[in-house]
């Protein structure tokens, strides 16, 4: 699910289509996870197709935000800022600045996961999940 963050980290070194391909991989993961959650919900709640739909939509939206959109944007901006900053404060050659930017992006991935996941939980609980509630609520 975090393939696009790796792609964004390498943006300064690879052609843009490679970065977009990493988004394709991440989106395929999100879609597969949503389908899997739907199948599990269908097995557990065969009489309630609404719960199946909720499982698929909730998973797809959550994963889309927490695994693709927000982390991708975060790493993209972090790498762009670090490349610009390194260009301003160092005399390193461009190739070294690009590799350093890639290292910054890769190092940041594990640091952003938990804060983004918690933020997306809060956003989903405060918005979309209010529309369909939790199981057992009226």
UniProtKB/TrEMBL annotation:
GO terms for cellular component: mitochondrion. One of its GO terms (biological process) is mitochondrial fission. The gene is Mtfp1. This is Mitochondrial fission process protein 1. PANTHER family: MITOCHONDRIAL FISSION PROCESS PROTEIN 1. Pfam families: MTP18. Belongs to the MTFP1 family. InterPro entries: Mitochondrial_18_kDa_protein. Coiled coil: none annotated.
């Amino acid at each position: 699910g975090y393939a696009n963050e790796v792609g964004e980290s390498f943006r300064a070194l690879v052609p843009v289509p490679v970065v977009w391909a990493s988004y394709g991989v991440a989106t395929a993961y999100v879609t597969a996870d949503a389908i899997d959650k739907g199948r599990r919900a269908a097995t557990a709640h065969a009489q309630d197709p609404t719960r199946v739909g909720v499982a698929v939509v909730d998973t797809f939206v959550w994963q889309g935000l927490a695994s693709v959109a927000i982390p991708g944007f975060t790493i993209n901006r972090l790498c762009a800022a670090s490349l610009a900053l390194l260009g301003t404060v160092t005399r390193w050659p461009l190739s070294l600045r690009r590799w350093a930017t890639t290292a910054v992006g890769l190092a940041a991935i594990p640091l952003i996961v938990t804060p983004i996941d918690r933020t997306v939980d809060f956003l989903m609980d405060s918005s979309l999940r209010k529309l369909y509630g939790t199981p057992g609520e009226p």
